[in-house]
Amino acid sequence: MVTIGNINLGEFPLLLAPMEDVTDPPFRYVCKMFGADMMYTEFISSEGLIRDAGKSVKKLDFEESERPVGIQIFGHDIKSMVQAALYAERVNPDLIDINYGCPVKKVVSKGAGSGIMNDIPKMVAMTKAVVEAVNLPVTVKTRLGYDEEHKEIVEIAERLQDVGIMAISIHGRTRTTRSSVPADWTLIGEVKNNPRMHIPVFGNGDVNDPVSAKYFKDNYGVDGLMVGRAAYGNPWIFRDIRHYLDTETLYPTPDIFERVRISQIHLERSVAWKGERRGVLEIRKHWSAYFKGMPHFKPFRMRLMQTESVDEVKQILNEVAAFYNESS
Predict the structure, then answer these.
(1) Span 231-266, pLDDT tens digits
(2) Around Cβ 241, how many Cβ atoms within 10 Å?
(3) Average pLDDT of 301-327?
(4) Which of 183, 201, 213 lies closest to 139, judged by CA?
(5) What's the CA gap between 193 and 189, in Å, rounded?
(6) Any idea which fold 3-247 has?
(7) pTM across the whole model
(8) What is the pLDDT of residue 179?
(9) CATH T-level fold of 256-327
(10) Please, what's the b/e burial string for 243-253 (b: 16 or more CB within 10 A of its CB; e: otherwise)?
(11) Residues with catalytic function
C-alpha cells in the first residue's frame, strides 16, 4: 500500500496533476468519477492567498467527494509560503503540496515554481519552514533540475525528504526542456531506487495512455503515476490505465453518447460552481478536447463557443450525439 502520512492511496495510485485553468472542482469531479486516486487544486499564489485575493481564495474550494485532495501553493518568499500554507490548512485539505515545477516565465523569473531549483538551499529552507508550520502532510512536485546542466533531482529529493516531506512527484523534464522533447524517466528511476529514499515517489511526464503508463510502472519502479495533459478532455484515462494494468487489455474507447454524457456533467458542475455565464464561458476550452478526433465537429464547436446559455449548450450537445449516432 502507498501511504502519505495517514492517507492510504492503495496499491499503485493514479494522481491527477495540478494544471492551471484546468483542474478546478468541476474537472476534478469527472476525473474522480473514473478513478483518480489523488487530486490537487490548481496552483495557488502564496502572495494572493495572504492578501486574501478573491481568485486565489476561490481555488481553495473542494468537495468532500474529491478526497483525498491536496492544495498546491507556490511562491518565492519563505515567510509568505508559510503564511499561505497556514491559510490553506484552515479549509482542511488532506495535504499541502509545494509547486517547484512550474516552468512559466513569469513565475520562474520571480524565483518561484521551477525557478527556485536554481537555489537549492533556499528550496530546502522553504520546504522545511512549511513542514514545520503545518500539521498536515507536506508533499512536493518538481522537475529533474533547473536546466540540462543541473539535473540534481537525486540530491534534491534526499534533502527534501530529510526536512520532512512525505511524498515527491517528479516531472521528467528540466525547467528548460521543451514539452516536445520526450520526458526522461531515468533520473526518476534513480530517485526511486536510491536506498536512502523511503517516501513515495510518483512519476510524471508523457503518461499519455494505458500502454505508456504500464511501461513507466514496469521499468522505473515508481510508487504511482501522475497524469497531466492526457486527462484533458479524457477523464476516462484513469479507468483505462487501471484496467490495462490489471488485465493488459484496452478498455473500449468512449462512444459519442458517453462523451456527451460526461461533458454535460462537467458543464452542470461548472455552472453550479461558477454561475451560468462564467461556467459556460470557462468550459469552452474543453469542447475540442472532449470531441478530439471527431470529423466534422467544427460547426458544432463554433456554436458552442458563441453561446452563453447553458440550455443552448445542452441542446447543441444533444445534436452532436444525434449527428454522430446517425453517421456511425
Answers:
(1) 999 999 999 999 999 999 999 999 999 999 999 999
(2) 26
(3) 94
(4) 201
(5) 6
(6) TIM Barrel (3.20.20)
(7) 0.95
(8) 86
(9) 1.10.1200
(10) bbbeeeeeeee
(11) 102
